[in-house]
Design a protein that fits this description.
Elements: E1 9-15, H1 19-30, E2 35-38, H2 45-48, H3 79-92, E3 97-98, E4 103-109, E5 112-117, E6 121-129, E7 136-137, E8 150-151, E9 164-168, H4 172-183, E10 187-191, H5 206-214, E11 219-221, E12 225-230, E13 233-237, E14 242-246, E15 249-252, E16 256-257, H6 260-265, E17 292-294, H7 309-312, H8 314-330
Bound molecules: flavin-adenine dinucleotide.
């Protein structure tokens, strides 16, 4: 079927080729729908940007999609095993994916949606946004944050050997970074705005970081903030004093947030709650915009630990079931 611009009319366009976008593509294919997945980076772009040595907290079978078995060497897979796995899923299902094509806008036109990307325009009856939350880091908003020594993403410990580093944050990423860089020879100071390491830190990691802090191997300032970053130092404000400390790198592990601006421009509304939760029907995953759906971790708004791969894989079936029902009613 062609649309008014003589382009193919898709039943559904899926924005984002993360694990949940791929799961949506698989369900769409199973249902015989004309679908396209559009991804701005590489396949499973967020996972690709995770720390090189990370291990998932989930066991591999809980990350499976499309019935493709995920066998890992240990009980929990690592990043490279996950990349291998999702590449295999994509080829097994011969998914229709455009990579390195950013979606710039989604606008309703007649009964359909027009999806404009960096490369062209597409028309679809429905759109699923499986955008994740890994593109926009929370900024410290302090002078010097734009210096090249400040990083909001962490890849591996080697560059920090023998360097004075400050790790900002007290959640899982900050703790993992502090421990890994300390063990590879960095001199680590943690600057933590809360009064302790967060409760959400993995229970098997928590004693390790607390003991390293207690014994003084990792220096930690609680109820404290970085207030300025200079080329070879940082200024830290603790409840007792403000002081300057020698510094080579700042790793701001302060979390990430979903692309709210983009979602707002698509017409999506948000609840007036602390998490800025997007409005969607929890049974169908359809937003307040007709035939515009959400799937995956993006559904949690700022509560980015509410949904993950394990518990949001099911969104794919929910969306496609609703869409199929609608399409069969209009056939
Ligand atoms: C360090 C770490 C460890 C984790 N461990 C686990 C675990 O053990 N188990 C678990 O279940 N979950 C885990 N998670 C969470 C899990 O990785 C995420 O929940 C998962 O990536 C969500 O999948 P998604 O498809 O919803 O989003 P994502 O994987 O983030 O995919 C979203 C995709 O959308 C693309 N995109 C965004 N905007 C656009 C646009 N405008 N145009 C085109 N493409 C766009 C992005 O590039 C990205 O590829 C972990 C997360 C982190 C950070």
């Amino acid at each position: 079927m062609k649309n008014m611009h003589d382009q193919p009319l898709y039943d559904v366009i899926i924005v984002g080729a993360g694990p949940i976008g791929l799961a949506c593509g698989i369900e769409a294919k199973k249902a015989g729908l004309r679908y396209l997945i559009i991804e701005k980076g590489c396949l499973v772009n967020s996972l690709y940007h995770y720390p090189l040595n990370m291990t998932f907290f989930s066991t591999s079978e809980r990350l499976e999609i499309g019935g493709v078995p995920f066998i890992s060497h240990g009980p929990k897979p690592n990043r490279s095993e996950s990349l291998e796995y999702y590449r295999r899923v994509c080829s097994t299902w011969e998914l229709n994916v455009h990579l390195y094509e950013k979606v710039l806008s989604i606008q309703p036109e007649n009964e359909n949606h027009v999806v404009t990307t960096a490369r062209g325009k597409y028309e679809a009856r429905a759109v699923i946004l499986s955008l994740g939350f890994y593109d926009l880091p929370y900024l410290l908003n302090v002078p010097g944050e734009d210096l090249p020594k400040v990083r909001h993403y962490y890849d591996e410990p080697h560059p920090y050997f023998n360097q004075n580093i400050v790790v900002v944050g007290a959640a899982n990423s900050a703790v993992d970074v502090a421990l890994e860089t300390y063990r590879k020879g960095a001199k680590v100071t943690m600057v933590i705005r809360e009064q302790s390491i967060l409760d959400s830190v993995k229970y098997w990691v928590r004693p390790d970081i607390e003991n390293r802090i207690k014994e003084g191997s990792i220096n930690a300032y609680f109820n404290s903030h970085v207030v300025e970053i200079k080329p070879s130092s940082v200024v830290i404000k603790t409840p007792e004093r403000t002081f300057e400390q020698e510094n080579d790198f700042v790793l701001a592990m302060t979390g990430y947030q979903p692309p709210f601006q983009f979602m707002r421009e698509c017409g999506i509304q948000f609840h007036d709650d602390p998490y800025h939760t997007p409005v969607y029907n929890e049974e169908t995953m359809e937003t307040n915009v007709k035939n515009l759906y959400l799937a995956g971790v993006v559904c949690g708004g700022l509560k980015t630990n509410k949904w993950f791969i394990e518990n949001s894989r099911v969104h794919a079936e929910m969306v496609i079931a609703d869409l199929q029902k609608k399409l069969s009613n209009t056939a």
